[in-house]
Amino acid sequence: MNKIDIQVQPAYIAEQSDPTNNHYVFSYTVTIRNNGSIPAKLLTRHWIITDGDGLIQEVKGAGVIGEQPHLKPGEGYQYTSGTFMNTPFGTMHGSYQMLTDSGEKFDAEIPVFQLTAPHTLH
Prior knowledge:
With 122 residues, this protein is an all-beta fold. It is built from no helices and 8 strands. The strands form 2 sheets. Strands 3, 4, 5, 7 and 8 form a 5-stranded antiparallel sheet that branches.
């Protein structure tokens, strides 16, 4: 059975942001855990980033931070990456395409999470 659980912890990066020029930088730490019974490799990522104005940016590519982790049942993988937006708040979600050792591809959904600069109302 394929069961990839994904948790995301976002953070606002004040020292890289410039609110006076509508430039807001966020990091996010992703924890991926294979809670299924079959080993699987992360092939690609697909992110959908929506800013506070409803502007949607899609990011697709191979692996995460230059890696394609292979997770055996019970194993986890964690990485930190980042993004920027023109508004102090928005959301991200997406999916990772996974490949089992038996050759089956499936998508592991990344749940929606909020990107919010401190002291912003939305």
